[in-house]
């Protein structure tokens, strides 16, 4: 295959308007803080990571794609199904109940219906037993509350999937999920609440207690959209890496630290965090930030619906992004195995001297022209 000389991503000012001659830089993972404790080297140099979103993928109940309603998200069944593929981690959302138990659930509020009336509760206002009473039960004979979900359009619908499972705790995930599978633990907080430091510390300590008692040799990454929680969990422990989650400028927030990749870099450097997890559209619209992140010796992962498109995932590999969080676990792991070959030992050595990729003009042209179409989806 004919080779093409690569240029820095900073040469491409904005991928909404892609110049014909643009090229991309690849600089493979250079971990920040790999000497933090003895568990922090969780991302392997040269290894492109695939992470299952909420296990085998999130549920989008109104989607016409059956893959979005296949298995209950954030469940033991979903995690172990994901583990059956060539997957590095599963990502899931952790909140803490009113009585101090870390549970796995994405939404801030939980819904049920009784006698035609819909009831809404804040998840963190429930006790553990109250939370576990929603949805199917381990004992088929036990009474339970039907589980509903509020969709993005505001409609509340039954949480119907092809393969259902019970709600679960963080402890259960450690006990029942394949121990070789890494956990990307997203520390979930409500965007509409201003948290005091003691609230954050209490929540984080509850999560850390379970992790330290149960993780053993399992790879762990912490991540969160809450800037103060990210800084605090880094201060509270030095064993596992902490990544800051950001929309990468695709949405605006009152807290400016959440509003751009540049602000994310600044937060990571100030708080000695190890990496960033960005909405992939934020990276595609600001590709110059990739080299800034790499120059800062931070890792970079992405999330978002474009990560369910194999061409988009491959382009990120070429850009030097370290991994992707995906919903279509089987499809994307198969595509990655086909498109991205593992780095051999001798290639790892040479990569320190020249981290720029070699790929064909046709391949590069196709991928660059694809981006403006992708980011409009």
UniProtKB/TrEMBL annotation:
Keywords: Glycerol metabolism, Hydrolase. PROSITE patterns: GP_PDE. Its EC number is 3.1.4.46. The keyword Hydrolase applies. PANTHER family: GLYCEROPHOSPHOCHOLINE PHOSPHODIESTERASE GPCPD1, GLYCEROPHOSPHORYL DIESTER PHOSPHODIESTERASE. Belongs to the glycerophosphoryl diester phosphodiesterase family. This is glycerophosphodiester phosphodiesterase. It comes from Chenopodium quinoa (Quinoa).
